[in-house]
Design goal:
Blueprint lengths: L2 H4 L6 H14 L6 H14 L16 H13 L8 E4 L2 E4 L13 H17 L4 H11 L5 H11 L10 H13 L4 H9 L5 H9 L16 H7 L2 H4 L16 H7 L26 H14 L6 H9 L12 H10 L13 H4 L3
Antiparallel strand pairs: 1-2
Helix pairs in contact: 2-3, 3-5, 7-8, 15-16
Length: 353
Amino acid sequence: MNYPQEIDYHIELSSLKHFANKLIENKVVPIDAQYIFSVLKQAVINSEVAPFLRKPITQEKEGYYEKYLRLEEENSSNNVVPDFFGYEGDFYDLDKNLNFSRAYVNDEQFQVLFGLKLIELYSLKANIKEFLDFQLCDNYYGNKEEYGYFLHRLTSKDSISYLLPSINDKILQWIKVNNINLALIDKEDVVEIDSVENTSNLIEDHWEAKKSKTIDGKMSIDEIKHFFSFLFKEQFEKSINNQFKPILTKDEVDMIFSNGLVIPAKPLEKKVKLCIPPRFPKKVIDHAIYKFFEINSYSYRDKKDYILFFANYIQDYESALNSKTSLDSLAKNITGERSPKDNINWDLYYKLY
């Protein structure tokens, strides 16, 4: 059999589920079934796939639905990834064809899916280089720098792909052939912070000239606050306490813009953290930052200034403070592209007074 001609280089649900169960059964590598199951479940939920069976509207028992309730209970005691799962009363299929996109899962989940796919391809003697090339375009849109960071993390000891050194060798070879600056990645990963002074030097040097800079723009501070009021006005997914939660509070948004649109001389010691529910991608916030830059900027050449501003206040963007390379990488991925999950009526916030 000529495997390379038959291999699908997409990160696809049903094949990953079957392969994970094969690894669990054969005990080739120590795979945690429940952990893989949880990642696959969340990836399916985030992908907004319709359930194959919905919870009955009435209180009357429905035989077919009751059957899946019983099967779900039985599956909970088995050390395998099952064919389906229940979520909020509905049932979803884990044995269907579904290509996972990086846009619908967080970095940790995507790393698990990607690593599992690598092990699957290696077991089939597939061409790992072709898969790495394919994923550069399929999920990273040709951004070698960000892809290089991701691949480098796959070689760390907390990655399942680390269990197979031969896969790591192929990853490192791909990074080398594609001229990705691994030395810079290594330096940033292993740097030790010995003191507060050392921390300051580490995160500030590359944006020294931007400290205390006011970002000139077309919008007043009230208009800017109105634009970003979606962060507390839009109510997204129910929390554990059955309450709808905003991404940030009004007080947090007011704090961010309390000094106007000025890049601080020193990062906020305790940055705010975006409260992003499972079904809500961070890409929506990226889109908002880009649109704000697009509406407010005079030159359209100062996008990195906007990113530095938010990096000083919001934990989810603070990587831009680590190095020029990190800032450049983040800037390349904050674009005007809108997520399919973005249901916000932006006309309410774009409109200038």
